[in-house]
Amino acid sequence: MTRIASSTAALLLGLALVAGAGACGEFDPGDEVLLFEVVPQQVPVGASAELRGQNLGETQGAGWVTLAGAPAPVQAWAPDRILVEVPQVGPGEVLVVVNWPDHRTEPVALTVLP
Predict the structure, then answer these.
(1) pTM of the model
(2) CA–CA separation, 21 vs 9, rounded Å?
(3) Residues of 87-97 as b/e, b for ≥16 C-beta within 10 angstroms?
């Protein structure tokens, strides 16, 4: 009986460790990834813009950001915020998208100032 209880305890501990791995920064493709807004709404080229969303991943990993299809240099990446430098695009309204090899967010508009 003790042997069965020990095996069960080891199995439960192993499951708990595996379940906790996702909370330590790994991306869970089952989570809905959303991009809500860009702050500020109007930004000149070369300035920083903050993208706000959810489930963006603990780190950048294989992700990247585009503004009007152009790659935007990433300055910081967190699960709910990404800070980017606005690349040479625009002026005018452009679409911002967070991309990964197998999926991307819906676009959010940003106005690039001249």
Answers:
(1) 0.74
(2) 19
(3) bebbeeebebb
